[in-house]
Each structure stands twice: as structure tokens, then as C-alpha cells.
Amino acid sequence: CEGKTMNKANTHTDNNVHELVGKVRRLMLTSSLVRGVVIWLVVLLGTLLVLFTLDNFLHLPEGLRLALSIGGLALILFELWQLLLSPLIRRQRLETVTLFLESRFSIPENMLINALCFESVRLSPKEEPFAQKTIETGSSMMSEANVNELWQFKKLMRWSTVLLILLIIWFLYGISHGH
């Protein structure tokens, strides 16, 4: 698909499959980042709660407190990298997203990836009708797919519930320690 010249005859479709897959890629990134922020906040608040609680109840020596703090900070930074920074830096290629969509939404016969490729290459007049039909079919199949499934609302709600519980625990922890 890559590195080939755009077929001028296909420009009337305005790269329809490219645009659809690009929109889904942005939706997937947004979903991943929203879920990542919630999970990272759970890790952050949970780690700090455990460290503070351990220190307050066990009165840890300074050396152990430092070691646990460094370990907690390492965990928090690792999760920040994994959940938020890495997805921003390593953007998925359109072809990778297209193959994922074909698998996820059971789009048969590589229809979507073929449509994406046909939009990007110069075709002979004999190939043009087949390519145009493939592009139209791929666009149609993609527009019928329920891409809102990619938000993974159940997982997001589970992590949001854990975050809410942690916030309540932090509130109670603050009250119990007079802050």
C-alpha cells in the first residue's frame, strides 16, 4: 500500500476508506488515553495510599521508607509510560488499524485492507472498476460497523468504579488523620 502514487481517478472518493480508518484510529487513541488516565490514577492513588498507610501504621525506618518510595515512584512512572506516553508516541499505522478492524468486525476477504490499498495506488483502466467496487464495498462495510464498541465501556466503568472507591478511601484517610 505504501509509497505508491495516488490514483487521480480515485480522488473523487476523497480517500473515503483512509478517512474512515483515520477516524477510527483517532477514536481508538482517545479511548486508550481516557482508559489510561483512569487506570494511571488508580495506580497512583493506590500506590500512594499503600505507602502512606504502611508508613503511618508501621512507622517505617527512613531507609525502608526511601526504598519503598523509589519502588512506588518507579511503578507510577512505568505505568505513566505504558498507559499514556507510549500510545501517544507510537501511533498505529493505518494498515495495522485496518487489519484490526477487519478482524474485530468480521469484514471478509481482506475487503477493507484491499480498499485502503486501492485508494493509494495508480491503477490501469482495466483494474479501475474492480478497485472502485472494492473501495465502495469496504467503505460500506466500515460505515456499518459499530465502532463505539472500541470504547470498551465495561472496562472503563470498572476502572472508574475502582477510582471512585479509592477517592472515597482517600477522603476517609484524610479525615481520620485530621487533614
* Rg over C-alpha atoms, rounded to the nearest angstrom: 24 Å
The low-pLDDT segments are 2-15
Kindly, what is the distance between the CA atoms of the first and last residues, rounded to a whole number of angstroms? 60 Å
* Helix run count: 6
Supply the helix-strand structural class.
mainly alpha
Helix content: over 70%
Q: Sheet with the most strands? A: none
Please report which band the strand proportion falls in: under 5%, 5-15%, 15-25%, 25-35%, 35-45% or over 45%.
under 5%
Shape: elongated
Count the beta strands: 0
- Give the SSE string: HHHHHH
* Average of per-residue pLDDT values: 89
Description:
The chain is mainly α. It is built from 6 helices and no strands. The longest helix is centred in the first third of the chain and has 43 residues, at 16-58. It is elongated and about 80 Å long.
Topology:
Elements: H1 16-58, H2 62-89, H3 94-104, H4 111-120, H5 128-144, H6 153-176
Helix pairs in contact: 1-2, 1-5, 1-6, 3-4, 4-5
